[in-house]
Amino acid sequence: MPTELSVGLAEPAHQQGIGVVAPFDFALDRELWRWVPEDVSLYLTRLPFFTTPVTVEMAVACGDRRAVRRATRDVLTPEPGVVAYACTSGSFVDGAAGELVLRRTMKDAGAPTACTTSGALIDALVLLGISRLAIVTPYVEPVTRRLIGYLAEHEVRTVSSQGLGLLGNIWRVTYAEVIEVVRAMDIDDAEALFISCTNLPTYDLIEPLEQALAKPVLTANQVTMWAALRAMGRGAVGGGRLLHAEKHSLRPGAA
Which phi and psi (to 5°) does residue 134 adopt? Predict the structure, then answer.
């Protein structure tokens, strides 16, 4: 029965939700929130802590099926519409087959549907018609090479690449540092540029870089949130050619 206080108050709108499985050292929760509409909630959980630095071994550990299954179950209680695995290296380190296993693991754990950062990248490249890509990563060289191999499996050629060689504290990289390495990796043969790692801050850089380079700029958190919201029939909040292309493709009569 309504009380005197509640009379005239509108009930809060139903919140759609995205379950997010992130690495233990993920520090950019606020950046993920910036991509989602106000009526969409994020239910974040972390994978177990590892003492290993950001190497191939750590990426493999982040993709451990048991840990991913447990983390997926941790975010199912509020009934998300999709579960997103928000780690680039953990989803490309074992190639295309490993990325598929991650999505199957989350769905087998109860996720209504699932996406990964690396899988979302491929979907974004397909939507934009990109087959030649420049990449910037914060990783050491062996991890960056795994990304190049993953892209090659999807018939995407890496025409230039640069890793920052970081073993930790990736979230502390400044916008100025990202801009410098992106400009260095932009070559005429690159149809687009991808900035890897969900722990690398990029939200405010996408549109300025696209204007400066005159080509699409994709980032890890951008494609992850784009794919998760797309799975729910929603659009991401922000700029960039990817989001513009998605809106255009959803227009009545669009191909």
Answer: -95, 140
